[in-house]
Inverse folding.
């Protein structure tokens, strides 16, 4: 079995796997918050870890100067094929922009949890603060331990999408607060009258199963707030799952609305 970088093979089935994610709800919440703080359609906005662009494609109809970046070239290629513009491949700990470039930054779907060390978290907040305008806004979410324990720990998800069989195994390490997800991909085979042949699959070009290992760190709320504060932010409010008046203690994604000092 061959190991690939995260979101290489996953990019091929990502949209199908995430089809039930309420991106429209997230977009409406983000729009309402940004509007409340005076962010307009003309302001420059950055989406970090945009993936295949499900949220980006909604927001670009509102914000004319929307930029997006992701570390995965495969994910960006999918977004580009959908008509995405102003796309960059970059690490969220080292943003390729100058100081005071954006009025607001957004990052969703627990992307911040991919920073496995507190120092990585500090680097990320330092960079987002640097590229934000004074008094600019950063809206992001983080997966919670409540979410991991109830929905992922010791669970395996099996799916079939097009010509790919996809197994997703998850384990949460309570001592390190890391969730390790092993994603295995296998080409299905077609039966014909005379023989069995492999389905043609040019994107992965694999004859054997391939896998990706995704590691995420679950941070306590106070750790995130502390890191953000040290690097130029203060917390305006928290929300649960992009829904108003929901108990944040049972949030799957805890949403942070922060402002640059």
């Amino acid at each position: 079995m061959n190991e690939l970088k995260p979101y290489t093979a996953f990019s091929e089935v990502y949209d199908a796997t995430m089809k039930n994610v309420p991106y429209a709800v997230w977009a409406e919440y983000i729009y309402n918050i940004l509007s409340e703080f005076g962010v307009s359609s003309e302001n420059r906005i950055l989406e970090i870890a945009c993936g295949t662009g499900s949220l980006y494609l909604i927001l670009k109809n509102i914000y004319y100067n929307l930029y997006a970046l992701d570390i995965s070239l495969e994910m960006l290629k999918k977004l580009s094929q959908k008509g995405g513009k102003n796309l960059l491949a970059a690490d969220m700990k080292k943003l390729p922009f100058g100081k005071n470039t954006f009025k607001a930054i957004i990052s969703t779907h627990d992307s911040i949890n991919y920073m496995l060390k507190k120092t990585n978290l500090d680097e990320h907040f330092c960079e987002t603060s640097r590229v934000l305008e004074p008094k600019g806004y950063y809206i992001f979410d983080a997966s919670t331990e409540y979410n991991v324990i109830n929905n992922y720990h010791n669970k395996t998800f099996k799916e079939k999408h097009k010509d790919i069989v996809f197994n997703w195994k998850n384990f949460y390490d309570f001592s390190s607060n890391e969730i390790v997800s092993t994603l295995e991909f296998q080409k299905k085979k077609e039966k014909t009258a005379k023989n069995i042949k492999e389905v043609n699959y040019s994107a992965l070009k694999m004859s054997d199963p391939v896998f990706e290992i995704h590691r995420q760190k679950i941070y306590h709320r106070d750790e995130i707030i502390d890191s953000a504060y040290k690097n130029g932010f203060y917390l305006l409010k928290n929300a649960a799952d992009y829904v108003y008046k929901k108990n944040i203690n049972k949030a799957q994604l805890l949403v942070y609305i922060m402002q640059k000092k």
